[in-house]
Amino acid sequence: MSPREGDGGGSRQARAPGLAPVTYLPGAAPIDETPARWAIPLEPAPDDEGDTDRPEAEEPDGPSAEEAEDLLTRRLRRSALSEREARTFLVQRRIDPSVAEAAIERFMSRGWIDDAVLAEQLLYAGTSRKGQGRRAIAQTLSARGVARDVADAALARLPDDDDDRALEYARSKAHGLRSYDLDTAMRRLMGQLARRGYSGSVASTAARTALTEQRSSGGVQFR
Predict the structure, then answer these.
(1) I need a surface site. Which of 70, 93, 138, 157 has the fewest CB within 10 A?
(2) Residues forming a β-bridge with 10
(3) CB 166 within 8 Å of CB 133
(4) CB under 8 Å to 105, separation ≥6 — which residues?
(5) Is the alpha carbon torsion for 107, 110, 116, 122 positive or negative?
(6) Rounded distance between C-alpha atoms, residue 215 and residue 123, angstroms
(7) 103 closest CA partner among 118, 82, 87
(8) 16: alpha, beta or left, given left = phi > 0 and alpha = psi -120 to 50?
(9) Residue 4 pairs with which residues in a beta bridge?
(10) What is the distance between the alpha carbons of residues 127 and 140, in angstroms, rounded to a whole number?
(11) Could you list the pLDDT tens digit for every one of the 223 residues in the chain?
(12) Phi, psi dihedrals of residue 7, rounded to the nearest 5°
């Protein structure tokens, strides 16, 4: 039997046992006896699902080093960061750790990330603007992730003047407590001083001195 059998001008390809017949559109039948070549299927056949040799699809690359630096630059325009804060910021944005470390190293070499400078800024803000004591400033440095040795060096340069700063702060708040009795005013003022990192003895002395001065000035109006 020949490979093809004529049927009124149509053509039918002979098939091997076990293979489904192939039917061609009119005029599209192959002109020779070469078997048809089939493309690799897009989806695996049922018996190929367990094939472990097939390469897995590659994961898309994360943000590049340039994108990491751009993110960090825009963040630093808002406020300074410690080295630890910068690392946390990049990790939270799914920057590859090696890319993040390289970016931080470059920024540190340029002086854009500097724990020592940040510590000085926090000391100035704590003493000059917030009236904080040494303990509160130390807690702030720790919370901001300033390296321990850098924080200790900065605190060592801080004048030992908690008493003076506590009294200055107490005096600034005493006027607002003039309508309270002495015990209530003492309790409130000591609480404010304690929240700024002053010890109990320092807070008590400063509060009592400030309230005594305020009473002596004749401006007391207890209710």
Answers:
(1) 157
(2) 7
(3) yes
(4) none
(5) negative
(6) 33
(7) 87
(8) beta
(9) 13
(10) 12
(11) 544 444 444 444 444 455 455 444 444 444 444 444 433 343 444 454 444 455 454 444 567 889 999 999 999 999 999 999 999 999 999 999 999 999 999 999 999 999 999 999 999 999 888 888 889 999 999 999 999 999 999 999 888 888 998 999 999 999 899 889 999 999 999 999 999 889 889 999 999 999 999 888 765 444 4
(12) -150, 80
- Return d(Cα 59, Cα 112) in angstroms, integer: 33
Contact criterion met (CB below 8 Å) for 90 and 62:
no
**Pairwise CA distance, residues 214 & 223, whole Å:** 15
For the record, the structure tokens of 17 come out as 């046992």
Three-state secondary-structure class, residue 109: helix
Share of the chain residues as helix, strand and coil, in percent rounded to the nearest 5: 55, 0, 45
Residues near 192 by beta carbon (within 8 Å), at least 6 away in sequence: 169, 173
Backbone angles phi and psi of 174, in degrees to 5:
-60, -40
User: Residue 13: beta bridge partners?
Assistant: 4
Which residue is associated with the tokens 């908690």? 162
Assigned CATH class of 114-160: mainly alpha
User: For residues 83 and 85, what is the distance between their CA atoms, to the nearest angstrom?
Assistant: 6
User: What secondary structure, in 3-state letters, does 8-39 show?
Assistant: CCECCECCCCCCCCCCCCCCCCCCCCCCCCCC
Q: Where are the domains of the chain?
A: 65-109, 114-160, 161-223
Q: Which amino acid is at 37?
A: R
Tokens 């695996």 correspond to what residue? 44
